[in-house]
Amino acid sequence: MTSLTMAFRNLSQREQILLLLLVGVIIGMGYHLFRYQAIKADLWHWESEVAKVQADLKAAKVPRDPPYERSRLEKKLAKLEQELQDVQAKLTPLESQFVPADNDDALLTLKLDISSLAKTTGVDIRDNQPFQPDIEQKAEQSTAAGTPRTLYEIFLHGDPYRRPLQRLRLVGSFAGLQRFLEGLPRLPNKVIVLLFRMETAGQPIAPGAPQPLSSTIILAL
Q1: Is there a domain that residue 45 lies in?
Q2: Distance between CA 211 and CA 203 in Å, rounded?
Q3: 0.85 cut: is pTM over it?
Q4: Which residue pairs from 106-109 have beta carbons closer than 8 angstroms and sit at least 24 positions apart in sequence?
Q5: DSSP secondary structure letters along 84-142
Q6: Which ranges in 163-215 belong to alpha helices (H)?
Q7: Residue 135, domain CATH
Q8: Which tens digits make up the pLDDT trace of 165-197?
Q9: Are 214 and 199 in contact (CB under 8 A)?
Q10: How many domains is the chain partitioned into structurally?
Q11: How would you class 20 by CB atoms within 10 Å of its CB: exposed for 0-12, middle for 13-18, buried for 19 or more?
């Protein structure tokens, strides 16, 4: 090391400067060569990763439903469509037996026929008015929840089969009420009994006389 120092000192100032510059260049080139190789290795790694991902994407295929699954769903759909057609085929002639829901004159005639039937069967109509139920929201909730709808809910909420409803409070003997119910299907136009509730009339009667009964009936006209 001392001999190198002495040799360096024996050089002229110009030679010393050139030697220092040469050493600096060598060191700089070595450093950059080291960094370049490291960066080059990183680039090669990421280029390989990108190429691998691209190859995977090209090889990937969108999965399809198994043929047997699609066939099963198609058969189920065809069965449901057939069931719907069968129901509509049964409801269409049934609907034609009702009076048109938007025909006020026909509805009035039907109500008069019901009153006439009550008179001929010995039943007294104490109350007769359109029925506006307060359970519409409950019925819609039960339908939305998947609960099977009753006939009452179908005629009340099931467009296009919604029908006008009429509530009657009747008073009469058991035989008279029975004759009234049996006479409803023989009216010129069809009516559907959606609700029938019977109880004693709660009025004084003579000894041995039949107990009058009170009933509430809801009809789909």
Answers
A1: no
A2: 9
A3: no
A4: 106/189, 107/164, 107/221
A5: HHHHHHHHHHHHHTSPPTT-HHHHHHHHHHHHHHHHHTT-EEEEEEE---S-HHHHHHH
A6: 174-183
A7: 3.30.70.60
A8: 889 999 988 888 888 988 888 888 888 888 888
A9: yes
A10: 1
A11: exposed
